[in-house]
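ping. complex inputs:
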Amino acid sequence: MADKITSRDINYSEWYNDLVLQSGLAEYAAVRGCMVIKPHGWAIWENMKSILDKMFKDTGHVNASFPLLIPKSFLEQEEGHAEGFAKECAVVTHYRLKTDPDRKGKLIVDNESKLEEELIIRPTSETIIWNCYKNWIQSYRDLPILINQWANVMRWEMRTRLFLRTSEFHWQEGHTAHATKEEAVEETVKMLNVYADFMENYMAVPVIKGVKTINERFAGAEDTYCVEALMQDGKALQMGTSHFLGQNFAKAFDVKFLSKEGKLEFAWATSWGVSTRMMGALIMAHSDDNGLIIPPKLAPLHVVIIPIYKNEEQLKTITEKADAIMKALKAKNISVKFDDSDQNKPGWKYAEYELKGVPVRIAMGMRDIENNTVEIARRDTKEKSVVSADGVDAYIENLLNDIQQNIYNKALSYRNNNLHEVNTWDEFQIQIEKGGFISAHWDGTGETEEKIKEETKATIRCIPLDAKEESGVCVYSGKPSERRVLFARAY
Amino acid sequence: MADKITSRDINYSEWYNDLVLQSGLAEYAAVRGCMVIKPHGWAIWENMKSILDKMFKDTGHVNASFPLLIPKSFLEQEEGHAEGFAKECAVVTHYRLKTDPDRKGKLIVDNESKLEEELIIRPTSETIIWNCYKNWIQSYRDLPILINQWANVMRWEMRTRLFLRTSEFHWQEGHTAHATKEEAVEETVKMLNVYADFMENYMAVPVIKGVKTINERFAGAEDTYCVEALMQDGKALQMGTSHFLGQNFAKAFDVKFLSKEGKLEFAWATSWGVSTRMMGALIMAHSDDNGLIIPPKLAPLHVVIIPIYKNEEQLKTITEKADAIMKALKAKNISVKFDDSDQNKPGWKYAEYELKGVPVRIAMGMRDIENNTVEIARRDTKEKSVVSADGVDAYIENLLNDIQQNIYNKALSYRNNNLHEVNTWDEFQIQIEKGGFISAHWDGTGETEEKIKEETKATIRCIPLDAKEESGVCVYSGKPSERRVLFARAY
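pong. complex structure:
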């Protein structure tokens, strides 16, 4: 059994770290800022991937794979992009080690293997992909190109946190090319909606869809759409972004096509991505001081059955009954594990599976056998109930749906209770200390945005897509504003 | 439509390259030695991955993810391993670029970001994984650890060929830890058998299972098992390897555990991997001068339906009938595409789908509608037949099984016809020029192995697992030998 997890109330940040480590999701690697995603963590990520992958394919996208390394000169092509990305990245300068002639068994870099041009481990792949698209796009008939890539990327981060900010991380990056601006904008919004659908209906995390301010835009984008969620400590987390890139990358890499009308035009681009950062959001949105709470739709294991017995004969009787239940559950695509290991007591096992976030636990003892019942405990509310063993598979199928919905409802009600309309700067300063989203008027200038950030550490998370037009005055400058935007302190 | 593909007879190597490029599987990237795997190629690789992944999970393995970068000092830990791997690899020496003060818009490496210790892009992950296992393994209760990783790796190759040898490639690497030698050896062989099963029953490529000679062993292994196949040009290709690593990595990284008997012991290791190289094997084993031949079990698209029509009304009639067929096929999990694009003529489409290796083509014209028939062409033999539209789904289901089997049989018969027992050095020299495997006696010394390689470019592919004991004399040295080994020129 793991060490005690710091309580959320005492130190949320330590709670998070303890939880990730002790539930076996991930740990820090020997390489600074990188992590090892352990089997339990990777299994959740695999579930996320396979659901998203299907959603991408259902919306007409195909997968491909582009190189890990990018020539330095590619990053120089798109000015804004270089500013935003080129700076903190892993640089490959040599391609060979050799035995150190002076120290036995040691290796040194072979200076004769210096590369003519340095290579960068991709922080994102717009440049290398648009360099390919240049050869793939000649005519409007070649468009649209709807490609996604599942990949590892690297951004040299100075302050890292497991899943939330690591130097190497895993993600998917969609890169599409279109014949018209309208189509590219439509794609950008379509993928934002796919993300929101996934986050709400699978991760059980309610999100707010919006557009970033110019200050917060992706380097090289004309518009950055985003989905924002609230964590249990009242801080916001950007869950994913979808960028309308205009013709910036087509111009940088000279990607022109012959239009239907016979004119040479630059292609229109989008890119969109979500990453292992979502693992951090999943954990922080739902889990408690006892461990992980994983929505059933993403849980690697749905049900654990724990036998309570005094001797081999009792175990045999319970096992027989458990086998029948397992068979019925598996027929409903519910994954189940029977833990009859004799290394640990039932109480230890209860705690262990709570820590790991298994949504449903069944306990079966001799009294259950006599009464033809089982004891069922749900992970989200910790409620226990004794139910008939007959039809327990149908009961659990309903229960899993109920748990999925309950986890979402709980997160939604927390989010709604922590989203406040604020109309004065005094109010703003008080409210921001309490955490949560603040909906307030803003004068639309980067200057005001910067000042608010300096004074309160709050950033504009987004201009919500559903923000209604509403005349008002900026909460900071008093200048006129046409709609409210969403502020929060954020990860 | 693509350019003409060089015929296999004229230049096999050019045929391969033309085919990979024109069928849209992959192309060379802007980064030397790296490739872009295009959607059609990646879709086949995804199918391979998902089948293998299920096989690994069915044999008790779980997936995880370890860092891309490895500290240089890790490579120094295991001497043999360092010798074999550390040399040609991508070395990260800095972590920041900065704007060139002298040339506007250019970037240069920031010398202040030099790393204290260089990092290597993983050529394989034994070292970083065993550095983790050190913390994961204390007792026999922690064993076995059965972990697999799907990852990209990099080995700086000077001469590259698409899929067969590229600097960056994709693979899976299993890394297991065991309490006993017996269990580790068993695991090594088990995974070799999983590979052979996959290659024969999904890739339709017959393989010979064997053990590598000491010269050909993986750096750091005590035994390297392998699966070897024959390509259509008579050259062998190593399809995958499974290594028994003994206690070498446990000793290098000090991974000890308390045994059941209460003694501190070093753990036993295996590692095993197959890569995108299998894509090259798949292409070279089956395809022809018209394009790819993909076994149905790996084909991203099973059936294409091409309507033959003169006007919109005819197309409408054909479409209705095709819809019904598509529905029936999809119900049988057979993927199907209806290509009614008006950009190209049917003949162009026939050639295009042959090039891409779609196993079955259905053509439907007005005469088919009148007669309630469809014309079916199979890609492997190019045979055409006109069959009743009623029950065409069942017909195609059988046909796909038949194609899968036929492709395998053809490859098997080619392999068997090109595997010769040879007993004299003269014979050997003549036979090796004809291509294929040579089964011959060898004296068991690395010296003789080297000389044979120098004189004929033939290497010992493996000592087959099923090689029977048979007294003989080495084909080269005349010294005594106890069994035949398998020679070939290889990729």
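The domain at 12-71+123-286 of chain B is CATH 3.30.930.10 (BirA Bifunctional Protein; domain 2).
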